[in-house]
UniProtKB/TrEMBL annotation:
GO terms for biological process: amino acid transport. This is Amino acid/amide ABC transporter substrate-binding protein, HAAT family. The keyword Transport applies. It comes from Sedimentitalea nanhaiensis. It comes from the Bacteria. Residues 1-24 form the signal peptide. Belongs to the leucine-binding protein family.
Length: 414
């Protein structure tokens, strides 16, 4: 004889409340980036920027739709494509439908391919990939897909902006190109050679080499090659500890020319460069921090520092990701139908607090926005990095950079 148990009223109500809580779960965004290892500081600072943006821009304002809140769920990928795929599957198994990643284009390639395969096989649990910093041009060209959106300018667009400035500098006759040995580093080098060849064919490329990513402990041998080449300027796409190690070695070995970079700010780098980086470090980035372009941006940064006194907003685009995703969900009227959310993101025009309009180009899901060429300095700095007194100040700006840039993307839509 089977035993039958009758639930009391209290227990029944508890189950009812529990079921309601399940249906009212937050809208979760998986953050898959390095939280340990040599690039941990970069990933951790990015995570804090995501958490702050979600809380300040969405949750504190009542959420999206009918009060749904954003929740950032961190996953440590150790900058490994293999580990990233494991973490991606864990996130999908947890019901997460939005994935943010940015550190390493090699990782981004692995994620975008896995997301595309998953979405073909599992139409009821599709995922969107929000790429906030992986800038290999292939991701919005031959390797593009409907589920991938890039919120940063790609490497070609950034190099176009950097070389516009370099072309005007008549003191540059020789350039040394050096970067990390993976898809992004190779893309930076190829773009540098092509752009300089077109804009300043008189400039001689006196060095063009790659080094292992995240494995070089002492960049002195590379720095000595730069010095020996008699280069007037250096171009590098290095990021994280590789950027800091390379930049310091070059400067400390006597190089006095400009070093044109993509990611030489924040996450401990600005503080470590300090006075030595002044007059040397230049970097291309979206948005403007110094001076703050809007009262909203100034208040936002001040509130961020109140919560994270040792932090930096060195990736303004992170708040753009959160703002644009929230706008897309509200326009689509759903957070579960990611096709509808993607359709709302396509062609979106978004007014960023950082002084630029962002246009998500429909044909390849590449964000188009203003780009700034910034200088590492302690003059005119409203918000410094790393509590160092040094920050970045915009020296020039390219409006809606890359608006007419070509794309080979042949996107297949669901």
């Amino acid at each position: 004889m089977r035993n039958t148990t009758t639930l009391g009223l209290t227990a029944a109500l508890a189950l009812s409340v529990s079921a309601t809580a399940v249906w009212a779960e937050n809208i979760k965004i998986a953050f898959i980036d390095p939280l340990s290892g040599p690039f941990a500081s970069t990933g951790t600072n990015g995570l804090h920027q995501y958490e702050f943006a979600a809380q300040t821009m969405v949750n504190d304002k009542g959420g999206v739709l009918e009060g749904d809140m954003f929740e950032i769920v961190p996953f440590d990928n150790k900058v490994s494509p293999k580990e990233s795929l494991i973490q991606l599957q864990v996130a999908i198994d947890q019901g997460i439908r939005f994935v943010a990643q940015g550190n390493s284009s090699g990782v981004a390639h692995a994620i975008t391919e896995a997301v595309e395969k998953h979405n073909k096989r599992n139409p009821d649990s599709r995922v969107l990939f929000l790429n906030y910093a992986a800038v290999d041009p292939a991701l919005t060209n031959d390797k593009c897909n409907f589920w991938h959106f890039r919120f940063d300018a790609n490497a070609d667009i950034k190099m176009d902006a950097l070389t516009d400035v370099m072309a005007e500098n008549e003191d540059i006759a020789k350039v040394y190109i050096i970067g990390q040995d993976y898809s992004f580093g190779k893309a930076v080098a190829a773009a540098a050679v092509a752009n300089l060849g077109e804009k300043r064919p008189d400039i001689e490329i006196v060095g063009n080499e790659l080094h292992p990513i995240g494995k070089v402990k002492d960049f002195t041998p590379y720095a000595r090659k730069v010095i020996a080449s008699e280069a007037d300027a250096v171009i590098t796409g290095n990021w994280g500890s590789d950027m800091l190690g390379l930049g310091k070695a070059i400067i400390e070995n006597g190089f006095s020319g400009p070093i044109y970079t993509y990611y030489a700010a924040g996450s401990g780098m600005t503080g470590a460069f300090g006075e030595t980086g002044k007059g040397a470090i230049r970097l291309v980035s979206e948005g403007q921090v110094n001076p703050p372009p809007t009262d909203e941006a100034k208040a936002y940064y001040e509130a961020f520092l109140a919560k994270y006194p040792d932090g930096n907003i060195d990736q303004a685009r992170i708040s753009n990701v959160i703002g644009m995703l929230a706008q897309a969900i509200n326009e689509a009227g759903t957070a579960t139908d990611v096709v509808a959310v993607a359709n709302a993101l396509e062609g979106m025009e978004y007014d960023s607090m950082w002084g630029t309009k962002i246009y998500m180009r429909p044909n390849d899901h590449q964000a188009i926005q203003n780009l700034h060429i910034n200088a590492h300095t302690d003059e005119g700095v409203t918000f410094d990095y790393d509590n160092s007194g040094f920050g970045v100040v915009s020296e020039s700006m390219i409006e809606m950079a890359g608006m007419d840039s070509p794309s080979t993307c042949d996107m297949k839509r669901p």
